[in-house]
Amino acid sequence: MGAGHAHKLYRHGHSPVHALPPHCKIAAVFCFVLIVVSTPREAVWAFGLYAVLIAAVAGVARIPAGFLLKRLLIEVPFVAFAVLMPFVAEGPRVQVGWLSLSVSGLWGAWNILAKGTLGVAASVLLASTTELRELLLGLQRLRMPPLLVQIASFMIRYGDVITDEMRRMRIARLSRGFEARGVRHWGVLAKSAGALFIRSYERGERVHLAMVSRGYTGTMPVLSDAAAGRAQWTRAALLPLSALAVCLLGWTL
């Protein structure tokens, strides 16, 4: 897992957030998401404070708001599901203009939108300040099962390879005058998908044989054994601890 596999979510920088060890950031984001999910949905003000915390971390990390908001579009399918809840949920209803909406559905939609958006924002912020290789280092340092770390590392390394293979196949189709314009072209696309699967499988076999010939026995070497200092853990804990205080207030007020 060498360098050179930067992902599109990552934004290079030299901020204090970028400098934190990856396992500290992963643990902080995980705890933050758990706290957000544990917050009662009726504490609307608490979610506003969570958003302020995310914005503060983004400011320290020098991540532009546009960069962050653009990548939040990944949650659009969940937004579409949440929008339907007030119309299909049962229970007492409230009239909003000419629409009859379910009260429980409105709260459910708010719950999904607020907690989902904050969770996605925290995850995007983590990815924006941490390279993929560092994320794997952090997962390994947090004692995630080695097999899962290996699978993730292979996905990162060969995802671009498969994408390039798809691009070459697309160029080959275009050079022969093919352009998918309707249902009658689905057969060609299906055959292309099958060919891509066969090529990917064969390449995987060749890679595995190459790894075995170089001494691979089913386990990868330890990538890093660097431990984080107390000061680094303290800085990383500022976000979840602040969120915990907000959550406790949300349950007591």
Outline the structure in words:
- The protein has 253 residues and is mostly helical.
- The chain folds into two domains: 150 residues, no CATH class; 69 residues.
- Helices cover 70% and strands 3% of the residues.
- It is built from ten helices and two strands.
- It has a two-stranded antiparallel sheet with strand order 1-2.
- A hairpin with a 2-residue loop joins β1 and β2.
- α3 runs antiparallel to α10.
- It is globular.
- The mean pLDDT is 83.
Concise synopsis of the structure shown:
The protein has 253 residues and is mainly alpha-helical. It is 70% helix and 3% strand. It has ten helices and two strands; from the N terminus they run αααααββααααα.
Lay out the secondary structure.
Blueprint: H1 16-19, H2 22-38, H3 44-60, H4 65-71, H5 76-88, E1 93-96, E2 99-102, H6 103-129, H7 132-141, H8 146-175, H9 186-213, H10 230-252
Antiparallel strand pairs: 1-2
